[in-house]
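Bug #77: duplicate submission created two jobs. Keeping one. Sequence:
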Amino acid sequence: MAQQVYKADQIKRQVLASLRKFGERVVSDLERGRFPRIEIPARTTSNIVYDEKLRQYVLGDKRIERTAKNIRHLRPFAQLLWIATFAKQLIQRGKTSTLRDTYYVAIGEGIDFEDQSESDEMIMQLESILDFPREDFHIFPEERASIFGDLVIEYSIPGFRGRRIDLSAHPDGFAIGPALTTAEFVRCGAEQVFVIEKGAVFSRFVEEGADKKYKAILIHTAGQSPRNCRKIIRRLHDELGLPVYVFTDADPWGVHIASVLVHGSALSAHIREINVPDAIWAGVWPSDIRRYKLPSMKLSDRDIKRIQEL
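Kept job's structure:
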């Protein structure tokens, strides 16, 4: 019987090869008696463009150089190399880490990060260099999104490899964490995906049997969707051909949540294919408030400012 080939294993090999290539460039410079240097895609707003082919925001061609020859670059250069080393260890050992835990491990090993935002920045720089999202080198945010519906998955992570689970088996939904994000889709009885901002709405949809009535997989984003959540939504659309419908509040924040799912975000412009360009914002629309005489609140100054930023 042929051994199951998991997509996660293929990605693992690709990321390790990319990490090796990155390390070899640094070693090559040292062996030639040169100061190591690396080029990093500039993640500035002026370098973010909309790619018509991919139908998402991506980084442009601008690059910044970091070199060990510049004393101001030495500290971030060393931080970046440590993050790359840590990522390699996670992949090789089949382990995962959160953004927060990565920061704590770094501090424990004497790496000079002022705070977590600084280590997060180095992780994003490594993403830009490798052209792989942090989730592919096993660094995740804290889990908060969840999924429920007629979908059977098969885990591909060590210790659970080959184990299958029906995502309609738990009324609270299953957390969209590292194991679920990389799992294989085995069987799907759903015909569409409902992406839901609010937990109360998600719970009501489950209680009312919306998954059965509309043959839908229900996904709760808990506000702005985490990247691993967006990744699983993209996979459901691409691999299973399921249309995606987004349900948010009829306020500027809900509009932005829907926009990120459809077009991507400036913060993740260096990551490809975690948006769904064909996703449809199903509501609640501001016009629905009048049409259905829904209760509403007056926009605050903060809301108005957010509208101007969109």
